[in-house]
Amino acid sequence: MAKLFKPLETERLIGKPDEAVHLSISDKLTDEQWQAIIHNDAAYDGQFFYAVKTTNIFCRPSCKSRPPNKLNIGLFQTAEQALSANYRPCKRCKPTGQRLPDHEWVASVTAYIELNYMEHVTLNLLADISHGSPYHLHRTFKKVKGMTPVAYIQQIRIGHAQQQLISTKKGIAEIGQSVGLPNTPYFITLFKKKTGSTPGDYRQLQLQLIKEASENGQHP
């Protein structure tokens, strides 16, 4: 019997950043502020904090993390304002002076995976967007979730593939592409490894079970 992996629901961040209450100090990032960010200029620490809207993390200007997309930056005068807008402090530069709890850090990573599983998501990318090292992220993620980031990505992708196999008439290759597994042979191999059957066999079995349940007046 094939195992069913249900796609995990996105772990909601505690108080998702709300543009309506965004307490930015300026409607536009100045060139001086941008230069301070990309050059990690510690002289600007304390003058402002910047938040990255795509990752829900805020930093000091001196943060050594990879520079974010300029269009995704929000500005705050204080760390308290960023926290009030429900951004999380960066684990690397510690803008609040305190260490971000591991479970909150991992929650931000799993939320990113849930929203971007169909893209090319790697451990290095996750480490970059979460402002940590690949080694530390791998170790901490496994401690909190009981599996590695790569295994979690695979679980999410296979779960969404299972849903599509049952609810759509898409071809195997198309489904693999849509869940971030464009190499069809690899998709089939991974699917069988995780569920015990190939995508085609899984679809046939599940549709047969649904048909039988319907004929017996039962809900599938």
From TrEMBL:
Keyword Methyltransferase carried by entry: yes
GO terms for MF: methyltransferase activity
SUPFAM superfamilies per the UniProt record, alphabetical: Ada DNA repair protein, N-terminal domain (N-Ada 10), Homeodomain-like
Pfam family, one: Ada_Zn_binding
Coiled-coil residue spans: none
Keyword Magnesium: no
Cleaved signal peptide residues: none
Transmembrane segments: none
Superkingdom of the organism of origin: Bacteria
Residue ranges of domain HTH araC/xylS-type in the record: 107-205
One GO term (biological process): methylation
Record InterPro entries: Ada-like_dom_sf, Ada_DNA_repair_Zn-bd, Homeodomain-like_sf, HTH_AraC, HTH_AraC-typ_CS, Me-P-triester_DNA_alkyl-Trfase, Tscrpt_reg_AraC-type_HTH
Keyword line: Activator, DNA damage, DNA repair, DNA-binding, Metal-binding, Methyltransferase, Transcription, Transcription regulation, Transferase, Zinc
Cofactors (names): Zn(2+)
Name the record gives this protein: Methylphosphotriester-DNA--protein-cysteine methyltransferase family protein
